[in-house]
From TrEMBL:
PANTHER family linked: ALDEHYDE DEHYDROGENASE-RELATED
Similarity comment text for this entry: Belongs to the aldehyde dehydrogenase family.
Pfam families, A to Z: Aldedh (PF00171)
Annotated ranges, domain Aldehyde dehydrogenase: 16-472
Natural source organism: Rhizobium sullae (Rhizobium hedysari)
Entry's Gene Ontology molecular function annotations: metal ion binding; oxidoreductase activity, acting on the aldehyde or oxo group of donors, NAD or NADP as acceptor
Protein name: Aldehyde dehydrogenase family protein
Length: 477
């Protein structure tokens, strides 16, 4: 079987490899992917550093053309790449193709942004002096991405990094190297100069740690766990490094008495259980007011009964497998914790068998939960959600905000008054009204508050805040 190698200084390299296993069918090896060493990582950083002077001064048309080519190829191969994504991560094929399309749109957007680079010319308060305010590339960027969105998240970090003239050392999650390798291969063939984009797949303890220890990275953009994010932050202080951290959430979906029940159930089910609940924007806390509580629980239970858990590539599958055995154990452990805490398991939570061996788990819905339980405080990152009964809107808002996280927050209501108040007072970076908490457009900012995020927003024109530095220049006329 071919080994998919790392890309360092424009050359494919690496003999040591690990198997990429399909969570829908653990007998299938998706591919063999290189496992980089500390030396590989140092070489990649050196290559990016050497390539930075020329790339940072490259023409905007060159950057535009390369990013546009990449976006076009991803779109043309959306079915193929979507199938690869579904095989290595377990996301259903329609979701996987949708994520692939989003990656293409991200590259298209930043191809356009390359042609829209602009600054300001303003008058000085002193006579005969002009002031120019411009943005310049930050430098060598370390990119560390998670396994749950293996093509979209790399796209929304790599595309702006290159658009604004930075060079990159990219480490994808060990579980899902396939889509990352494909993106790097596409960009490499699109015409990127050697060393501008370097791919080092491998263990976080080796590749990631070497990146954290390097004084040559001007910035690190990271998406992953809270614990690892804190390590990125602490290590970066020593090097005076710019950081951008996205670290998850415990997102609420509020259901008010006046909500359209069908809208509420669809939004809650999508938020909590689609993508197997493996989204940092998933709603695992369903905060429901008394008047609609029983009807909502009954309707949600019926909805969950209708959802088919099966092979990610099979037609009719609504929910694919959990990504791997370790995450499956985490999910099962939290389901037991919920029982021990006194919550009632109203539906699901059982391991299930299918035609192929995989990590299949029936979605779990708890009722009679409180906001103080561990299942309501800690991010599970699986198809597990808890219903928390509250008296009214005021209590619902208070419970929604009572969390160390603040990424996404949703509400189902037909009240303009409550919707407007919630948008203003929900302590989250993103707020959804009568929509799932998961799912944001590619051209708008993504990010949260409190323990969910640190640093500037990702995506859209706001990406410039992280990937560039501002320069102010004065000229005497």
């Amino acid at each position: 079987m071919t080994i998919y190698q790392n890309l360092i200084a424009g050359e494919w390299t690496g003999a040591d490899a690990v198997e990429n296993i399909n969570p829908s069918d653990t007998k299938e090896v998706v591919g063999l992917y290189a496992s980089g060493s500390a030396a590989d990582t140092k070489n990649a950083i050196a290559a990016a550093k050497a390539a930075f002077p020329a790339w940072s001064r490259s023409g905007i048309w060159e950057r535009h053309v390369i990013l546009k080519k990449a976006g076009d190829e991803i779109m043309a191969r959306k079915d193929e790449l979507g199938a690869l994504l579904a095989r290595e991560e377990g996301k259903t094929l329609p979701e996987a193709i949708g994520e692939t399309i989003r990656a293409s749109q991200i590259f298209e957007f930043f191809a356009g942004e390359a042609l829209r680079l602009a600054g300001e010319v303003v008058p000085s308060v002193r006579p005969n002096i002009g002031v120019e305010i411009t943005r310049e590339p930050l430098g060598v960027i370390g990119i560390i991405t998670p396994w749950n969105f293996p093509i979209a998240i790399p796209a929304w970090k790599i595309a702006p990094a290159l658009c604004y003239g930075n060079t990159v050392v990219f480490k994808p999650a060990e579980l899902v190297p396939g889509c990352s390798w494909a993106i790097v291969d596409i960009l490499n063939r699109a015409g990127l100069p050697k060393g501008v984009l370097n791919l080092v797949m491998g263990k976080g303890s080796v590749v990631g740690q070497t990146m954290l220890d390097s004084p040559d990275l001007a910035g690190i953009t990271f998406t992953g766990s809270v614990g690892t994010g804190k390590r990125v932050a602490v290590s970066s202080i020593e090097h005076n490094r710019k950081i951008q951290l996205e670290m998850g959430g415990k997102n609420p979906m509020v259901i008010l008495d006046d909500a359209d029940l069908n809208v509420a159930v669809e939004a809650a089910a999508n938020s909590a259980f689609f993508s197997t609940g493996q989204r940092c924007t998933a709603s695992s806390r369903l905060i429901v007011t008394e008047g609609i509580h029983d009807r909502f629980v009954a309707a949600m239970t019926e909805k969950l009964k209708s959802l088919n858990v099966d092979h990610a590539l099979k037609t009719g599958t609504h929910i694919g497998p959990v990504v791997d055995e370790r995450q499956l154990k985490t999910d099962i452990d939290y389901i037991e914790i919920g029982r021990q805490e006194g919550a009632k398991l109203a539906f699901g939570g059982e391991l299930i068998s299918r035609d192929t061996p995989g990590f299949y788990l029936q979605p779990a819905l708890f009722t009679e939960a409180t906001n103080q339980m561990r299942i309501s405080r800690e991010e599970i990152f699986g198809p597990v959600a808890s219903v928390i009964r509250v008296k009214d809107y005021d209590e619902a808002l208070a419970v929604a905000n009572d969390t160390p996280f603040g990424l996404s927050s949703g509400i189902a209501t037909t009240s303009l008054k409550h919707a407007t108040h919630f948008k203003r007072n929900a302590e989250a970076g993103m707020v959804m009204v009568n929509l799932p908490t998961a799912g944001v457009d590619f051209h708008v900012p993504f990010g949260g508050r409190k323990g969910s995020s640190y640093g500037s927003r990702e995506q859209g024109k706001y990406a410039a805040e992280f990937f560039t530095v501002v320069k102010t220049a004065y000229t005497l006329a």
